[in-house]
Write a structure and sequence with these properties.
The chain is of the alpha/beta class. It has 20 helices and 23 strands. It is globular and about 75 Å long. The termini are far apart. The mean pLDDT is 87.
Length: 503
């Protein structure tokens, strides 16, 4: 007799698993258990308070994120198992997933605009909207500058026309709250049926959380994740923008409290490459759907072409020998404070024509000194800006507006701030001044430089790599640069490597 796995819908966030064979539950639990990347370095693991694993099935309640429904089906059908799935009460999707395609004609009735000019969504945007609406949930994977906010806007407009519930849009930063609100206002400039001031309410920095008139609420996750479940009950649709930037527990808290949200959509430019990260996001939002890629957008001319120059700085042998065996932070501290390296970055920056973005990781020990070096040598008529986490929303917006009018400005900015949350169209050069191996940050930062400039120029990325190896011993940041090169190869970016002796 074929063993059965019974799946019952608890709410729109969770499924409940039941089976007559406890061994199958144990198998499933193991199947959905993973080590968290970097767990060995986390205090809870070091203090023996945690085994380093994340378990996607609650062994007390046998509950699992509803978005992992397809993974359970794949588990059951795997060779050697042959378990039968018994769906009780239509567990996740319901119609129209497998019955009909959504009617996309509603878009023809919406007068869309951007910067006052009428626009038409691109084919991949229309396909993403159709896919998301058909399944009622999706994790939409689409690179920076691909127009994710328009996809979100169209999903909202469809939901408002077809359902009575409210929409919750959750973003990681205050800047993105304002950016999303501004994008919606821009898209609806010529639309008499949509008034952004009446339709949308923004929540951040202590603003009122109980506006009942607006059907769209745009909020940072920090402002709402501690609110009681009752607050979330009116939302029939929840959207997480730049979902990879949410703290895991906070994202989980928000999404699992949205019990009534039948429609659940996430967007991100990239995943971090780990199975754990992917499954958590899919569990909360739904299966990953690849909207488009950076390479496809460059090929069709929607994004600027990208030239990558990896500048491999080679340090003197005596110095490499001295630093052999240095701990990671010791190596970083040496690099960001190295006078020759910083002067090289300064000269590289000043040699560029066009607007140049210099990205750093450490504000006090690298960003500010680097900004001072560049500003001291820059021509009097060349604007040099500094942007970090301490720059308020208004300040960032001023930088963005000024830079879009400039042709030769320099922005020295923290990678964390600029990888998410600021869109500048006229960036011609990007310089990675600090070592980073984060796949997400690298790709997001590249995306910031690929928005089509008004003059149609290509974008050049200068990736500063540091070779401090001694004999067979390779230094940390050299290995990180190899990781970045693998990303460039996988994304099919063109790149060249130049060795540069550094005295």
């Amino acid at each position: 007799m074929t063993e059965k796995i019974r799946l019952k819908k608890k709410n729109h966030a969770y499924l409940q698993i039941d089976t007559d064979d406890r061994g199958i539950l144990a198998e499933l639990s193991e199947f959905f258990t993973f080590f968290v990347p970097g767990y060995k370095f986390m205090p809870a693991y070091k203090n023996k308070l945690w085994d380093g694993k994340i378990r996607l099935i609650d062994n007390r309640t046998n509950e699992i994120y509803a978005g992992l429904y397809d993974y359970i089906k794949a588990f059951a059908a795997a060779e050697g198992r042959g378990y039968e799935i018994e769906d009780l009460d239509d567990p996740v999707y319901g119609p129209p997933r497998s019955t009909q395609d959504p009617d996309m004609s509603f878009i023809d009735d919406i007068p869309l605009s951007a910067k006052g000019e009428s626009i038409r969504p691109r084919d991949y945007q229309l396909e993403a909207v159709a896919h998301a609406l058909k399944d009622k949930r999706a994790m939409l994977l689409s690179p920076t500058a691909s127009g994710k906010s328009l996809i979100i806007y169209l999903l909202c407009r469809w939901y408002l026309d077809n359902h009575d519930g409210r929409i919750l849009i959750v973003v990681p930063t205050t800047s993105l709250v304002e950016q999303m609100y501004g994008d919606f206002a821009d898209y609806s400039t010529h639309d008499s049926d949509f008034n952004i001031e009446k339709a949308a309410h923004r929540i951040y920095g202590g603003q009122d959380k109980n506006n009942q008139d607006a059907r769209i609420v745009i909020s940072t996750w920090q402002s709402i994740y501690k609110l009681p479940t009752q607050w979330f009950r009116e939302f029939g649709c929840v959207i997480g923008d730049e979902a990879h930037n949410f703290k895991a527990k906070s994202l989980t808290s928000v999404l699992t409290k949205c019990h009534e949200a039948e429609y659940r959509f996430g967007t991100t430019g990239t995943l971090d490459g780990t199975q754990t990260h992917k499954l958590v996001l899919e569990g909360l939002f739904g299966p990953v759907y690849h909207v488009t890629t950076t390479k496809e957008l460059m090929d069709e001319g929607s994004l600027a072409s990208l030239n990558i120059n990896v500048l491999l700085l080679k340090y003197p042998d005596a110095l490499c020998k001295e630093l052999k065996g240095a701990k990671y932070q010791e190596e970083i501290d040496f690099l960001v404070s190295n006078e020759s390296r910083n002067k090289f970055i300064r000269n590289l920056t000043l040699d560029q024509s066009g607007n140049t973005l210099v990205l750093f990781q450490y504000v006090e020990k690298h960003g500010k000194p680097l900004h001072d070096l560049i500003r001291q040598k820059a021509a009097d008529d060349r604007h040099v800006f500094f942007v970090s986490g301490g720059t308020d929303v208004e300040g960032r917006e001023r930088v963005r507006q000024i830079t879009e009018r400039e042709k030769d400005a320099i922005i020295v900015a923290s990678m964390g701030v600029f990888s998410t949350g600021i869109n500048i169209r006229n960036i011609h050069n990007v310089i990675f001044a600090s070592p980073s191996k984060s796949q997400i940050r690298v790709l997001q930062s590249i995306g910031r430089g690929l928005r089509k400039a008004d003059d149609g120029r290509d974008t050049t990325l200068y990736d500063i790599a540091d070779d401090l190896h001694w004999k067979k011993h390779k230094n940390y940041t050299l290995n990180h640069s190899a990781d970045r090169i693998r990303i460039y190869s996988r994304e099919k970016f063109k790149f060249k490597i130049y060795e540069i002796p550094l005295k």
